[in-house]
Each structure stands twice: as structure tokens, then as C-alpha cells.
């Protein structure tokens, strides 16, 4: 476990040591419980998901210095992979992004582009229970500071689904979720086109994870070391 990873927990909790330690403990409880389901993977094992361009960190930050991550689940090959693999990469993406000071200090803005994401896909592969679980992990176990969650091109059913899980989400997250529909100008009020890909009306050209994949594969040794970290076998951790 390197100092930069520990610092991520402290920064996420505004250097409140007690709260940071609680999240760190919850992270390792989560890591132990879901090993080889959502955790303990190497970047090379995520290569297939990265190549789908469904999770894409942008090369530039927004005006507040925050990392921008574009998520396009409509590009994910659900028949070839699994929702667990989708979630597992999301967990490890934060560890990869932590190698940049922008993510560690300023947090991130997550943009969900739901173009081509159908009701059939949602019902077949993703349950509401899983969505609540994912948001809870983000809040309680992962030291990733989401400063804004923007949803664009959402189909009509998605607002209904969000309404079903909204009350189960922490208020802090609810206040940071914004829906824009097909109105990309609404998104641009928060994140300017200069730092967005072509798919979101931006100036950066189409989404392409080629360079990010190279970066991820170069972190293989870091992940091998992190997989070894965790509770001692004699410890029976309890999350809070």
C-alpha cells in the first residue's frame, strides 16, 4: 500500500483521520468480501472492458481542476461480459486515476451518456438492487470524491428507475445528480465543450482509450502489490 493511496482516503474525508480510517477499513472489508468479483484484478484483466470505450477518462480537467470520466454503458458488450466486470473496472479505475494529483485533490465529474442503453439491457443485466449497492459502495467504501454526476441522452424509463432508488441514496449524492436529456447545452453549462469528446458535443474528437490502456497496463506491478494488502487472516473485520 503506497502513501499516495492512503492520502486519497484522507483527502476524501477532508483530513478527518477517524472518518478516513473508517472508509479505509470498509474498503478492505469490501475488498476481502468481493475478491475476484469486484476487487483484486490486474489492469491486464480489464483490457477487454477498457477497449470497449465504455469508461473513458478525459485528457483534460474541467475549470475546477476535476477529472472528467465519461461512462457510456450503451457501448458495453453485455452479452460478452458481465455487470460484475463492469463494476470491477469502475472500482479499479479510481486507483488508476489516483496516480494523477487532479483526481486525488479535486475529485471527479462523472458523465453518463445513456445513448443506446435500452430497457431490455437494464432488466436483463442490471437490477435496482445492484444500482443501490454500487452507489453505497461509492459512498461508504471507496475514497473517490464525485463532485458531479451528469446524465445525458437518458431514455424515458431511466428517470423512473432513478426515482425508485433515489431515496436509498445518501443526500450528498442526490444533490450532485443532474439530468440533461438530449440537451447537451445544459451539460456544457457545467463542463465546457473544450474538455469533452465529440460524442458529447465537445472539441476533443471521438472517445478513444488507446493511450489510457497503455497507462493502465504500466501500473500492473502496483496492482500486484495492492492485491497483497488487506486484513490479517486472524482478523474478522466488520464494516460500518
Secondary structure layout plus pairing:
Elements: H1 3-12, H2 17-33, H3 47-51, E1 55-57, E2 67-71, H4 83-97, H5 101-106, E3 108-113, H6 119-125, H7 128-140, E4 146-152, H8 156-166, H9 171-174, E5 177-181, H10 184-188, H11 210-217, H12 220-227
Parallel strand pairs: 2-3, 3-4, 4-5
Antiparallel strand pairs: 1-2
Helix pairs in contact: 1-2
Protein name: Alpha-tocopherol transfer protein-like protein
GO cellular component, one term: membrane
Pfam families: CRAL_TRIO
CATH class reads Alpha Beta
- State the strand order across the main sheet: 1-2-3-4-5
Q: CATH H level: which superfamily?
A: CRAL-TRIO lipid binding domain
Which structural class do you get from the secondary structure elements?
alpha/beta
What count of helical segments does DSSP give?
Answer: 12
Mean pLDDT across the residues is 90
Q: Can you write the helix and strand succession as a string?
A: HHHEEHHEHHEHHEHHH
Shape: globular
Organism: Stegodyphus mimosarum (African social velvet spider)
Domain CRAL-TRIO: 42-208
GO molecular function: phosphatidylinositol bisphosphate binding
Protein name: Alpha-tocopherol transfer protein-like protein
Describe the fold and architecture.
There is one protein chain. By secondary structure, the chain is of the alpha/beta class. It has one domain: CRAL-TRIO lipid binding domain (Phosphatidylinositol Transfer Protein Sec14p), CATH 3.40.525.10. The protein contains 12 helices and 5 strands. The protein has a 5-stranded mixed sheet with strand order 1-2-3-4-5. The longest helix is centred in the N-terminal third of the chain and has 17 residues, at 17-33. The two termini are 22 Å apart. GO terms for molecular function: phosphatidylinositol bisphosphate binding. Residues 42-208 form the CRAL-TRIO domain. It holds the Pfam family CRAL_TRIO. This is Alpha-tocopherol transfer protein-like protein. One of its GO terms (cellular component) is membrane.
